[in-house]
Amino acid sequence: MILDNSTWSVKDKYVLITGATSGIGLAAVKELASRGANIGIIARNQGKANKVANELKQSLGHKKNIDVFLADMASQQSIRKAAAEILTKCPKIDILINNAGALFEKRQLTEDGIEMTWAVNYLAPFLLTSLLIERMKENEHARIITTASHGHKMAKTGINFDDLSAEKLYKSPKKFFGGPTLRYAETKLANILFTLELAKKLKGTNVSSYCFDPGLVATNFNQNNGWLARSTMAVMKIFSRTPEKGAETLVWLADSDEVTDHSGLYYADMEVATPSVQAQNIDSAKKLWKISEDQVQHSLKLIS
Q: Which of 170, 184, 210, 267 is an active site residue?
């Protein structure tokens, strides 16, 4: 990758982000906007997204563009519609941050027939990236950053490709470390494998791919899954870091010149980290990519 002599920074760059109305996503957009970035928020809830956008505009004195695009990350049709709107409105996309995530206690299927946690946490980033990548390749340099998790290590046997719909997994007898939690772990493992394979497919282009572990963060995550989930998260918050601390590595990956020539790596606390053995499996990454293309019926044919 060859750049000019200028140093990379997020100033005046256009940053698209999902999951920015709360938690580390919200902390990240506030910091990135304060550093001079133009922001595009992709959100399901228009009211929450507009509130964030208005607050950012007021704090910045309306000096930067703050756009809102509506998309339900569980719906491929909704993601495609938002991507089309983004491509029409945004002549330049410098950074794409795939940050939205969820965990569902009860197994649910999306309108596309995909298990919900898999659809939101993994397949949505895959599809959104696929739809926007050509625009990003037009830049001198661009970055794709995906929020992973240390929790991927709970998927000790890797992704069960024979149970992608998670029918068997959700029947796991253990409540907390059973179906829902292990499914979440699988999706975070998939995020890392996606980053690895994407970097290989983008080799020789001007686009880099990164993922990171935000650590255990005190957010509103997992609050829609009943009293047990809420109680567990309340206890975990005692040992959690703030959203601002959790967003540090995300902001650093977006803004730092140190990672310009790197791609395909997994980071934690602003350093390269070592994911699980399963997250380094090249064959699994290739297999996952092909299956993902089938699930979204979209192939990145123009990537070498």
A: 184
Higher pLDDT, 177 or 15: 15
Residue 99 lies in a domain: yes
d(CA 164, CA 183): 10
Q: How many CB atoms lie within 10 A of CB 238?
A: 7
In single-letter form, the type of residue at position 11 comes to K
Share of the chain above pLDDT 70, in %: 87
DSSP-derived letter for residue 269 is: T
- Please report the pLDDT score of residue 218 as a whole number: 61
Q: At what angle do helices 179-201 and 282-296 cross, to 10 degrees?
A: 100
| CA gap 214, 267 in Å, rounded | 9
- As for how many domains the chain has, the answer is 1
User: Residue 164, Cβ neighbours under 10 Å: how many?
Assistant: 17
Q: Could you give the C-alpha distances from 24 to 19, 32, 119, 202, 214, in angstroms and in order?
A: 8, 12, 20, 27, 8
Domain span including residue 163: 14-214+245-296
SS3 of residue 36 by DSSP: coil
Hey, how many other C-beta atoms are within 10 angstroms of the C-beta on 115? 23
Assess whether 170 carries a catalytic annotation.
no
- Domain assignment present for residue 188? The answer is yes
